[in-house]
């Protein structure tokens, strides 16, 4: 019999129950026991749901209160010294301090760095390690959650981040190599695996996603040494899980490791199946990732069944498991909650619960169960209906993309010639100050938006409310003394959803939530068809805000690559073509903002690095069309209009030439958590344009003071000329409160003024 399994399930709950429980706990409204009770209820519900869907062996320890990489670091006592005293007194408080920072009388702790999980929009906390690091088993989370499921009568497969991936995803604070710590780490893995076996676990899943990346000889040797060591001690059978791409030149390594099963992603890389079948030793379990764990379309089950039957034919009676391509962490929970989607569109979709149904159908069909043909025919028709639907295709949009030329992606003159024109238009001081765009979305703002959507607040009254909020925000910025203002984005629900709602080719779910980090959840738009802009989207609010002040007002847009990456994207055409369509829609908006008198326009691209393929050989093709798309959106304006962009929580060293190729006049980046480390790439490259290194970590509730920001700016001025530097937070202020925002921005402006004084004195 073919088994159905799963690599991981969404943590947040179908209605974001975990988000609400976390934020209630952080506000001090509920205690740790209440938070843990909510978490236990979610785990029980999800295990039962998976079993009801026909999953033979669901995962455990895939749940996290914040992040699974942070869980791993905490589990193995990789706790930086600054958190150590708190961890001894209150482990949960220390855990959240590592994630979010902590500031209260007598305690001021910075959070760990945060960056993207491979090429997804999920963020993980980067463990901090050092030479001589000691590891120890701290707590028993994997063991406790395995026992928790077993008490419900459900056998699970505990999930752990594998030792080599854990080290390679970490950073060291002293310049040593993380893999030097492998021998110190392995005994703790052995201890945990032995405890799981003693508890009755039959299988354990070790996630090693770095196996789909380019590995050097040291990493390959680390895999061989690590798994040879783990094999020597008692342990459950090990499923080595890879995902997000093909094993390629790491296939022989993965197949030779002494494990009992191997999972491969056949959605991202179906072409690897033949090689996997040849390389995998007889008797080893092969887990086929056949349904897409990262998108929401119904899967082409006929194609998946062909792959499964091909594998069955080559393996005979060898054990075969069917699974999603990766953890379902990246998908919403349940399509049945979508009551407002039209029937046609809803028929094209599958959320996590429905993907498990698809896997059960594939397994039953593979095993020759009666009654599967009708269900397969229904699935086939749903896929074909989407392909044929006239709402998917727009000939005018396709023609406009086909007519693009190199001139459409090129500013009229180089930045050096644009700079004096922009300086004359904006009249800014050295170290100019600005923010990234959004200001606090208070409960009052969110309630007004909800009441308007529900028809309980008239459009005219809602518009008047937004005007008052915008004016208050402008006045607040003037009082604080910022140089380039923003309108605050009170009309926007989300930096991608807001634009998608005004573009043709997009649709929206009611409960299609996925986790971005911690309690931060996003509801990605669904790009189902050709994209175009029927009317201006942001001009009204930028123009209104500019009418309130003599200071420059910055227009705020989300860039084409980020709109693409942070949406559920159609899979019936190349992503590059969809991105160009979005870029043309944004180009129209940029041109309209300029015509409305907006002299500075920010086109955010925080997802540029995120979309980078995991293999270097594929980078040039992606970066070529990604940079082109940004330039299409920005290149229709005159030389005096200043184009900004923003990027956050990504490493730029290896793509700095492409960042420069965007030709944005100003780029703002996240640097406060890394203490300006990310600026090194800009200095080594001699980045030609202006840079705003973030000096305020908005993902933490702590408020830095002026001296801390001055210290960061001095570090920045050591590597970049002062004339190139702007002063700004790391990211938008939407999630922060007004009190902390005022305090932090006041300190930011004071820091900029101090730097100006130092520059004059020098």
Automatic annotation (TrEMBL):
Keywords: Amino-acid biosynthesis, Metal-binding, Methionine biosynthesis, Methyltransferase, Repeat, Transferase, Zinc. HAMAP family: Meth_synth. It catalyses: 5-methyltetrahydropteroyltri-L-glutamate + L-homocysteine = tetrahydropteroyltri-L-glutamate + L-methionine. It comes from Stenotrophomonas daejeonensis. The active site is at 699 (proton donor). Residues 431-753 form the Cobalamin-independent methionine synthase MetE C-terminal/archaeal domain. Zn(2+) binds at residues 646, 648, 670, 731. L-homocysteine binds at residues 436-438, 489, 604. Pfam families: Meth_synt_1 (PF08267), Meth_synt_2 (PF01717). L-methionine binds at residues 436-438, 489, 604. GO terms for biological process: L-methionine biosynthetic process; methylation. This is 5-methyltetrahydropteroyltriglutamate--homocysteine methyltransferase. Its EC number is 2.1.1.14. Belongs to the vitamin-B12 independent methionine synthase family. InterPro entries: Cbl-indep_Met_Synth_N, Cobalamin-indep_Met_synthase, Met_Synth_C/arc, UROD/MetE-like_sf. Residues 5-305 form the Cobalamin-independent methionine synthase MetE N-terminal domain. Binds 2 Zn(2+) ions per subunit. Binds 1 zinc ion per subunit. CDD domains: CIMS_C_terminal_like, CIMS_N_terminal_like. Catalyzes the transfer of a methyl group from 5-methyltetrahydrofolate to homocysteine resulting in methionine formation. Zn(2+) 1 binds at residues 646, 648, 670, 731. Its cofactor is Zn(2+). GO terms for molecular function: 5-methyltetrahydropteroyltriglutamate-homocysteine S-methyltransferase activity; zinc ion binding. Pathway: Amino-acid biosynthesis; L-methionine biosynthesis via de novo pathway; L-methionine from L-homocysteine (MetE route): step 1/1. 5-methyltetrahydropteroyltri-L-glutamate binds at residues 16-19, 116, 121, 520-521, 566, 610.
